[in-house]
Write a structure and sequence with these properties.
It is built from 4 helices and 5 strands, in the order E-H-E-H-E-H-E-H-E. The chain is α/β, with parallel strands linked by helices and 110 residues long.
Length: 110
């Protein structure tokens, strides 16, 4: 790929909200497999997708995407780092904001 794009995909819906959350993670995987730089930021009820054993999460990280979990959202839902998949990084909104404001970053919020 000559000019890969950078994507920040923000997921705020829980996995029980329907199949759209899994599709959103699948779309992120496709972008990563195509050679784009992809970061998925799980916020609000989306942090529940960071539980161990979520197959979409594991395939996403295997494709080269980063997955961040909002520290505030996780704390509000009593999800400590030990309750999260080893494939994720706990991050603050400041880190996501920095990426959001960086040049050339394309952002999608679901």
């Amino acid at each position: 790929m000559d000019n890969p794009s950078r994507y920040l995909l923000i997921e705020s819906q829980g996995t029980w909200a329907g199949p759209n959350a899994a599709r959103f993670l699948g779309d992120a995987r496709v972008l990563a497999e195509a050679g784009h730089q992809v970061c998925v930021f799980l916020v609000q009820d989306g942090v529940f997708a960071a539980a161990p054993g979520i197959p979409e999460l594991e395939s996403l990280t295997k494709a080269g995407a980063e997955v961040w979990v909002d520290d505030f959202s996780a704390a509000q839902r009593a999800l400590g780092e030990r309750a999260l998949s080893p494939h994720v990084t706990v991050a603050g909104m400041d880190r996501a904001s920095e990426m959001l404001m960086s040049e050339g970053c394309r952002t999608v919020w679901h």
